[in-house]
Amino acid sequence: MQDTAAIALQDAPPNAGGDRLRTIWRNAFPFIVVGALWEIVAWLGVFPRQLFPTLEDIASSFVELTLNGILLHHSIETVLRLLAGFALAAVFGVTIGMLMGRSRRAEDCLLPLVSVLAPIPGLAYTPLFLLWFGPGEISAVLLVGFVSMFAVIYNTWTGVKAVKEIWLRSAQSMGASNRRIFRHVILPGALPYILTGLRLGLGQAWRILVAVEMLAAVPWGLGWLIFGARKFLNTDAMMAGVMVIALIGLALEKFVFQKIENYTVVRWGMIGRT
Amino acid sequence: MSEERQQRNRSILRGSLALLATAAFYETLARSGIFAAALLPTIPDVLRTLWNMMADGTMELHAVYTLYRVLFGFFLAVVFALPLGILMARFKRVENFVLPLVSALMPIPSFALVPLFMLWFGIGNLCTILIVFYAASFPMLFNTWSGVRAVNPLWLRAAGSMGADEHKLFWKVIIPGASPFIITGMRQAFLRCWIAVVGAEMIAASDWGLGWVIFDAKEFLNADIMLASLIVIGAIGFVFERVVFGSLERFTVYRWGMVRAAKG
């Protein structure tokens, strides 16, 4: 589901010149309508302004929080946490998935464990992790890694199993060593799946991280910013935080995954250029 | 044939051995006393807690609250997002208006809105249900949208030339044609809901609900209650995924012949 934002952006037909303006207008129009509605409701004072701030309030607190660096600090901490957790998930997930795909014994032993642990929603593990590893950084990173690992495992496992038998045999009969087969046949063959897994994993890590930050009492982080703002009825700061979260989410999709996919999968010819 | 069966038997044997070994490892760790018993309860303790909570009905009540929230939110998402997805696919104008908004909202994880919803709607059922609704809407919407768009235009024209009116076209061609996507959307949406409800219950704590009971147990170091609720959460999720959506799929998609039934 992550890639839908990208679909929306690609969907705008790349026509030349004047059509581009129209495309921009077409994409901006709904936001203007919704923004105007929001503004009207906020000014009418149906809800207290503290709970339903006007757009100027949100913008000004966004600017203020950006200028004094608070927003930036929160975002950096969040992104670092995300990357640390996701790196754990990627390393362990791909390794376990590869093992399960290549060795029947590993598959038999690990699959039941994975199938028992995976269907439990990741957040449900939060209190347990907090209890075991204490509140703070370690719990948050471990939890994000643990939860997003399953998508990586499943997809890597499927990918390795989906490598065509005939490719393996032809490489073997042409005298490729095990390492070469792994490097040049299995890895590229499984890569589309692995990337899908990483993508899903990153999506999950991202979705859960915000909640984990709220629960795990970390000193900095966007989730904590939003959650903390609630206590002081700073709805405008909250909204600013939510906006940054949306921007980071979009950037992750647009600049991380589409790039990786273009460089590897498409180049190796595993998926046709669309 | 027999070799395959042997292979499968060996797989099952290995799998159960691995599970047993893990359980045994956990049990020795729990009994060794390296960690406090409150943090790492033994398996019999967890099962006893589970049994006791089931016997006095608290666990069922928590589960009922959680299910009520998740199903209500899911129902709202289906009622709202399914028609909207169809409209988006059928009318370019709706698509042009809704798609940019949805693409902007989509990357916001549902949990980021929990504090906001808590302020707006207070703590309790309404906040949780709305979070579930938000989490479920996007997979529902996008899958319906792409499903309806993926309906083979040839079928539409064929049905049209055989004299089907709009109404018939919709119910007999478009809906069955899009059904695999719609069911996938429902599945994904339910998974999201199930995650969202647990998280929302933890953050926007009320007095009941499986997510709340886990988080509340942390305060009193009741790891056994936590693990017992985890088992219940996993079991309910499993039942929904396999039994409910599996049979829904059998009754619609397979029966309409949209996907080869050999898979099941």
Report on the architecture of this protein.
The complex is a heterodimer of chains A (274) and B (264). Chain A contains 11 helices and no strands. Chain A has 274 residues and is mainly alpha-helical. Chain A has 2 domains: 1-46, no CATH class; 53-266, MetI-like (MetI-like fold, Orthogonal Bundle), CATH 1.10.3720. Chain A starts with a helix and ends in an 8-residue tail after the last helix. Helices cover 81% and strands 0% of the residues of chain B. Chain B is built from 10 helices and no strands. In chain B, helix 3 (58-90) runs parallel beside helix 6 and helix 9 (210-219) runs antiparallel to helix 10 (223-254). In chain B, 41% of the residues are buried. The model of chain B is unreliable at 260-264 (pLDDT under 50). At the A-B interface, helix 1, helix 2, helix 5, helix 6 and helix 9 of A face helix 1, helix 4, helix 5, helix 6 and helix 8 of B.
Please specify the SSE layout and strand pairing.
The complex is a heterodimer of chains A (274) and B (264).
Chain A: H1 4-11, H2 18-44, H3 55-67, H4 70-102, H5 104-117, H6 126-133, H7 137-162, H8 165-173, H9 178-215, H10 222-231, H11 235-266
Helix pairs in contact in A: 3-11, 4-5, 4-7, 4-9, 4-10, 6-7, 7-9, 8-9, 9-10, 9-11, 10-11
Chain B: H1 2-32, H2 43-55, H3 58-90, H4 92-105, H5 114-121, H6 125-149, H7 153-161, H8 166-203, H9 210-219, H10 223-254
The count of domains of chain A is: 2
- How many whole angstroms does the radius of gyration of chain A measure? 23 Å
Look at the structure and give the CATH class of the largest domain in chain A: Mainly Alpha
Fraction in beta strands of chain A: under 5%
The outline of chain A comes out as globular
Specify the overall morphology of chain B: globular
CATH superfamily of the largest domain in chain A: MetI-like
